[in-house]
Amino acid sequence: MKKFLLIFFTATAVSLPVFSDKPQNNGEPLILTIEKAVELGLENNFNLKVQANKAAGAERNNNDAWNVLLPDVSLSATLSRSNSSTSGSGTYYLGANDAYGLSASSDDGIYDYMLFQSYDYEISPWTAVGNFSAQLALSPAMINGVKALELNYQNAILDMESAKLSTETSIKTNFYNLLLFQEQIEVLKKNIETTEARLESMEEMYNYGYVTELDVLNTKAGLSSLGPTLLQIENGYEQLKMVFLMDLGLDFNQEVTLEGAVEVSPELLDGNYLVNTYMADRIDIQQLTVTEEMLANAKSATANGRLPTLVLSWSYSPYQVDPFDSEYWGEEDYFDDSGSFSVTLSLPVEDWLPHSGTSNDIADAQNEISNMAHQKELALLAAEMEIRALVMTLNTSIESMKVRTESIEINQKSYDMSLEAYNSGQLSLLDLETAENELLQAELDLVSEKYNYISSLLNLEEAINQNLSN
Question: What is the annotated signal peptide range for this record (predicted)?
Fold first, then answer.
């Protein structure tokens, strides 16, 4: 029996996920229904928060996909100083009068001479140069870039749905496992109470000489063995409860009361109907479909990269000498500017050549598309096999629960008859204990079968992405 209990506990072991933002423990017991447990888990699951952030980023990128039509704009300013001095020279007009104030002009306005004077000046070593440019490249591959962002967003949504479904399945499994452990503990406690009552009766019968001391010792030994077994199961329950609390983002010292019962409503399922109706709804199949679209879009982007690209460019660059003296700002000798606008149409001719790198990339992309199609076919076969196997397990479990329920009734009647025969001295203690152990084993077998049914049903719901519990 100990071996059976160890196997049962091992079968209920689950992984330990990581969570944050735990609700504060106020010291009061928390009553949890399965709906409340799922709600808490979905709110506090760390992996779900990571997936939500990824989905939000993918949504933002998808919504801003139009920004590929924005030009690349740059603005720069440069201030430089020459290491060598720079000077210039010039002349300016003094007038047409001589040094004595006499005019050199005649009556007809013709001057005999004009006075000019030359001068030298030093040019500031500081120079400021600005540059403003914009460029927009237009190509058919831009459409593929927008499509890629849309597909990435779809894939992020599917990842989020997959994480939610997996988390919900884990929470429900742990919830029912705890209820099943409670039921198992109650079965053992009931057996201990029965054994204690029988021991008390045997000790009284021993005082009157109706049973031997060996019978009393054997009963005590059997009772002593049940104590450690119960303790082991209770420890298993506490360990599973810690997993459950972590699942929900609660503190380990949070007292919880599970409100619910292991209600198994067996119903035979049709594997053909489930496969034909729900298999396409599986999240992994939807993800493979999106992956196929991603590969096809990537191939199209590579092919479109060989098409002409139209580049629109514009630039403007002002130039100012001695920018620290506002007197010269915009002056003809100190300021200058230049600009340009260009339209360029380019075609990568080498990409059209046979056996070029681009041609090989396109061929490789087609191979990936073909391989993904085969992988999807295998995934569909594996999904169908999983669904059919789970349906067979569930249908088998239904029949097994019927048999085990009948077995409990038979073993209960056998134990009652054995106890009556033992009390009348017609049956040995060994035979009575054998009947008792068979009854206990039958009850534990039913508990185990309930677990198998619920676990398989939850796995089937996850496999077809549908709720079958209601």
Answer: 1-20
